């Protein structure tokens, strides 16, 4: 999926991008080896420490920098200074998705590219009546204990509309659910036995990833959720950097 994201950004070598939620830096380093300059932020200090160690070990210090940071507050990044911004399954953790998008818009140069790779789900009204209750309960638990308040709001099409509200143009949404189906099935097989054990003892909230792996595959097969890429541009000539929380055009 990293190659897909790189192609979606479609930026020339030497471009500077923000990895918003960089974790231990795998994607940031991969992009650096392809010629991009990457600034990474993550809320977890240990992730940043591990990333710094690996960046140095691979000799990528001049192309990748990482720091503890919150994508709701990108005060350390100047207005209109980046060629690209991306997230890979981290935007769902935002407390205020619109504010995050507003910050992304502010730091992008006019003509800059935003790429988001995130999960979506159907609305309550679209859920078929024959869906087992335990799958729906699992989805709520995963959102709650996996700390995904924005993920809970992202029914299909919502993120595309938010991007337009914030002033982004050329918004593209590409469904990649079929692309991740094999990986989802692998996680289902890997987690099935452990999931039976934790379910028997009622411990699902303590093993969110295991529950997500098993019940997520079941939900994917039923079309209850999916995975998509979102590409958008900051308009050329737009130097509006007001921090309103919701841009109006």
What would your notes on this structure say?
- The protein is α/β, with parallel strands linked by helices.
- It is built from eight helices and seven strands; from the N terminus they run αβαβαββαβααβααβ.
- Strand 2 (37-42), helix 3 and strand 3 (64-68) form a beta-alpha-beta unit.
- Helix 7 crosses helix 8 (208-221).
- The longest helix is centred in the last third of the chain and has 24 residues, at 177-200.
- The chain is globular and about 50 Å long.
- The protein starts with a helix and ends in a 16-residue tail after the last strand.
- 37% of the residues are buried.
- The model has no long low-confidence stretch (mean pLDDT 92).
Q: Key features?
A:
249 residues, alpha/beta, seven-stranded mixed sheet, 40% helix, 21% strand
Brief summary of the model shown:
The protein is an alpha/beta fold. The chain is built from eight helices and seven strands. The chain has helices at 2-9, 26-33, 45-57, 97-107, 133-145, 158-165, 177-200, 208-221, and strands at 16-20, 37-42, 64-68, 82-88, 108-121, 169-175, 225-233.
Strand-helix topology:
Layout: H1 2-9, E1 16-20, H2 26-33, E2 37-42, H3 45-57, E3 64-68, E4 82-88, H4 97-107, E5 108-121, H5 133-145, H6 158-165, E6 169-175, H7 177-200, H8 208-221, E7 225-233
Parallel strand pairs: 1-2, 1-4, 2-3, 4-5
Antiparallel strand pairs: 5-7, 6-7
Helices and strands, in N-to-C order?
Answer: HEHEHEEHEHHEHHE
For the secondary structure, the number of strands is 7
Please compute the radius of gyration using only Cα atoms. Answer: 19 Å
Mean pLDDT, all residues: 92
Structural class: alpha/beta
Biggest sheet descriptor: 7 strands, mixed
* Shape designation: globular
The largest sheet has its strands arranged as 3-2-1-4-5-7-6
Number of helices: 8
């Amino acid at each position: 999926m990293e190659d897909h994201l790189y192609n979606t950004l479609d930026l020339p070598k030497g471009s500077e991008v923000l990895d918003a939620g960089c974790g231990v830096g795998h994607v940031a380093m991969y992009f650096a080896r392809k010629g991009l300059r990457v600034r990474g932020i993550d809320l977890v200090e240990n992730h940043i420490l591990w990333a710094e160690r690996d960046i140095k070990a691979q000799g990528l210090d001049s192309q990748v920098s990482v720091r503890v940071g919150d994508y709701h507050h990108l005060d350390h990044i100047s207005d209109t200074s980046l060629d690209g911004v991306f997230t890979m399954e981290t935007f769902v953790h935002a407390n205020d998705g619109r504010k995050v998008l507003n910050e992304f818009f502010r730091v992008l140069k006019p003509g800059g590219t935003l790429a988001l790779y995130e999960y979506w789900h159907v609305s309550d009204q679209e859920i078929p009546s024959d869906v087992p209750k335990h799958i729906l309960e699992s989805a709520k638990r995963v959102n709650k204990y996996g700390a995904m308040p924005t993920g809970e709001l992202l029914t299909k099409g919502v993120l595309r509309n938010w991007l337009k509200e914030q002033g982004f143009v050329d918004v593209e949404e590409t469904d990649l659910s079929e692309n991740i189906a094999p990986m989802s099935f692998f996680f289902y097989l890997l987690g099935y036995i452990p999931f039976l054990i934790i379910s028997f003892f009622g411990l699902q909230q303590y093993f969110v990833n295991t529950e997500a792996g098993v019940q997520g595959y079941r939900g994917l097969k039923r079309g209850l959720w999916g995975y998509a890429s979102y590409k958008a541009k900051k308009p050329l000539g737009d130097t509006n950097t007001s921090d309103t929380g919701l841009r109006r055009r």
